[in-house]
Amino acid sequence: MEPALFGKSTLALSLTFAVLACATTEKTIPDSRESVESIADGSGWQPFPGASKDAAFLERTPAEFLPFVKACNPWDEWDKPAEPFRIHGTTFYVGTCGIAAIFIADPRGHVLIDSGTEAGAKIVLGNIRKLGFEPKDIVFLLHSHEHFDHVGGHALIVEDTGAGVVASVKSSAVLASGLSHPQDPQYGMHDPLQPVLVAKILSAGETIRVGETKLTPIETPGHTPGALSWQWESCEDDVCRSIVYADSLSPVSRDDYRFTDHPAYLEAYFDGLERLGRLDCDILLTPHPSHSRMIKRMRTNTMIEPASCAYYAIGKARDIEERIRKEGGAE
Question: Do 188 and 180 contact (CB within 8 A), yes or no?
Answer without folding.
Answer: yes
